[in-house]
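stage 2 :: seqdesign
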């Protein structure tokens, strides 16, 4: 099969195109084909990867297989004797300096029939069937193409690695050698117990199951800072640990071991004793294992690529979202490329759409769609927005306080399912016991739409029915984070407004910048009700912002701010504890003071006022 040469778009740096160094920015798989022309043929095309990526799609579209392809490519280019049975791919690595490395490989029956490397449009290595080829030799007569003979069953790029004559291979090897691949849904070595012996083998940093050995190496090399980083990250996910160490298993006993046995042991806050990895929950262990791996890579300062399949598998929704948030922030801080996969629709909603890669499969052909190559479709999806439990509870309290529970009926419902596929029928679930209607004058229906991309869509779907049922005004509330940045708020507002029928009951959209928790932060008197010593002054001293004086819309991560503030006094804030916070908010302050400083709250309070006083 002939392999087409990809279009060259890079820049020339010198006569042969390579500047001599590369720090990778993007990976682009033009196409990948397995078992070409056979019944089991499978191919992937147009996979563009940035710094942070979430691969999504329905079951069996190829999410895990895509990560396996990237991991397999890295092994082919860094580890001897790992050539695939059959593969055909064209891969482009673009450095942060704008240099394009294009690598082509075709294998059938574990025999290489074609291999080529281009850097900024120039051929540096080329070989065909039988293993004969040419490679650029830098130190011979100022640089020449020299012939070589490679074994047909080996990758020439790895076989010809030479930092003096062929130094252009080294950046590719370093990238491939530093790729790490983790399956979050696996045991990650939870059932493994290591045997500690003097002068034993070095830990394999690339093995996802060698968690205990890697933790010991990290402690030895980086000390307490390494331990503290893991404990702090675990707290952000929702696991509050006082200590992590290694030691003999507690929950099981081994007879006659020829040396010291070791597992991961953790001491949780408010728990009297340590728990070993064997008896701890699978979810907790997976989080700790991934954080050990991630922090080890960070402390080693590796410019690497992290592949995590089924991220969040086995965790509750809250912790799934938190581990993703921690990993994304680590990627930003260290410039480590992060590629995750999931098919959990609720978890997907916590990641900005610009980081999504949507796989679509037709037969054996899989195409990757992202914001770059399918902007119009992604924008249409983004503009359909959503809201959930936090807003529902807040609005219910606000309306109840303003109306003083007179002549008003508030009904709360969840909407789940729907969509074009019909696979999951739309379901409406009443959240409170049914109430008998007597002489009430006002009726308010509050919907939890079910995810962060559905507000405008749900309003559009129910608009006609609500209007015909006598509802006079519809208010849609959603967070801006994580799908949008601050500068995109106006675009989001307009996009949502364009979704509704102007001939039906009027619709008002309220965007809480950046999250509804900004409103909770602004009502600063509630902190001492959460804990008597949790004062605005303590928050200012510890976290760098004063709830008495700050501007709510200036905070980029209000939910995280609220969580960190509560943790100053050991109180946990998560989506299951929203009701506790809403219950202690002073709505007199919200209604009388905050509407003057928080524009979104003024829009909401004005809408409620107008409805109840007309």
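stage 2 :: out
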């Amino acid at each position: 099969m002939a392999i087409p040469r990809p279009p060259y778009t890079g820049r020339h740096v010198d006569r042969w195109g390579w500047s001599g160094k590369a720090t990778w920015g993007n990976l682009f798989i033009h196409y990948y084909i397995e078992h070409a022309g056979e019944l089991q043929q499978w191919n992937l095309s147009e996979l563009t990867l940035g710094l942070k990526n979430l691969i999504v799609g329905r079951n069996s579209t190829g999410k895990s297989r895509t990560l396996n392809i990237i991991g397999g490519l890295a092994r082919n280019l860094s580890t001897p004797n790992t050539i695939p049975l059959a593969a055909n791919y064209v891969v482009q690595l673009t450095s942060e300096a704008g240099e394009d490395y294009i690598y082509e490989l075709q294998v059938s029956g574990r025999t290489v029939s074609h291999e080529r490397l281009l850097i900024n449009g120039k051929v540096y290595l080329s070989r065909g069937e039988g293993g004969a080829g040419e490679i650029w030799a830098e130190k011979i007569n100022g640089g020449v193409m020299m012939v070589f003979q490679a074994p047909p069953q080996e990758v020439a790029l790895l076989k010809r690695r030479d930092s003096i004559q062929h130094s252009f291979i080294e950046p590719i090897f370093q990238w491939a050698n530093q790729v790490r691949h983790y399956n979050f849904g696996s045991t990650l070595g939870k059932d493994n117990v290591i045997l500690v012996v003097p002068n034993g083998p070095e830990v394999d940093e690339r093995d996802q199951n060698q968690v205990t050995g890697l933790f010991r190496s990290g402690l030895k090399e980086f000390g307490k800072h390494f331990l503290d980083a893991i404990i702090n990250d675990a707290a952000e996910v929702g696991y509050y640990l006082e200590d992590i160490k290694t030691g003999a298993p507690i929950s099981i006993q081994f007879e006659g071991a020829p040396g010291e046995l070791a597992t991961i042991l953790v001491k949780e806050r408010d728990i009297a004793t340590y728990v070993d990895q064997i008896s701890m929950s699978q979810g907790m262990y997976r989080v700790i294992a991934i954080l050990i791996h991630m922090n080890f890579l960070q402390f080693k300062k590796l410019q690497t690529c992290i592949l995590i399949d089924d991220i969040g598998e086995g965790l509750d929704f809250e912790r799934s979202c938190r581990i993703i948030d921690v990993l994304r922030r680590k990627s930003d801080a260290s410039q480590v490329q992060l590629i995750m996969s999931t098919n959990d629709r609720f978890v997907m909603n916590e990641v900005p759409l610009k980081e999504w890669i949507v796989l679509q499969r037709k037969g054996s052909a899989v195409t990757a769609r992202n914001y770059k190559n399918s902007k119009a479709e992604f924008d249409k999806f983004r503009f359909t927005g959503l809201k959930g439990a936090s807003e529902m509870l807040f609005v219910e309290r606000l309306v109840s306080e303003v109306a003083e529970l007179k002549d008003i009926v508030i009904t709360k419902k969840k909407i789940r399912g729907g969509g074009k596929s019909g696979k999951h029928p739309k379901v409406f679930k009443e959240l409170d016991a049914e109430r008998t209607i007597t002489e009430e004058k006002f009726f308010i229906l509050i919907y939890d739409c079910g995810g962060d991309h559905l507000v405008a869509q749900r309003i559009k779907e129910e608009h006609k029915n609500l209007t015909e049922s006598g509802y006079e005004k519809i208010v849609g509330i959603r967070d801006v984070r994580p799908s949008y940045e601050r500068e995109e708020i106006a675009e989001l507002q307009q996009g949502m407004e364009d979704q509704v029928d102007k001939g039906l009951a009027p619709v008002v959209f309220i965007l809480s910048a950046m999250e509804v928790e900004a409103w909770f932060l602004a009502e600063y008197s509630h902190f001492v009700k959460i804990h008597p010593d949790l004062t605005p002054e303590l928050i200012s001293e510890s976290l760098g912002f004063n709830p008495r004086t700050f501007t709510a819309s200036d905070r980029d991560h209000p939910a995280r701010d609220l969580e960190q503030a509560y943790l100053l006094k050991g109180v946990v804030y998560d989506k299951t504890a929203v009701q506790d916070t809403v219950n202690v908010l002073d709505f007199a302050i919200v209604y009388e003071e905050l509407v003057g400083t928080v524009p979104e709250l003024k829009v909401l309070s004005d809408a409620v006022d107008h409805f109840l006083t007309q």
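stage 3 :: structure notes
- DSSP finds 19 helices and 23 strands in the chain.
- The radius of gyration is 28 Å.
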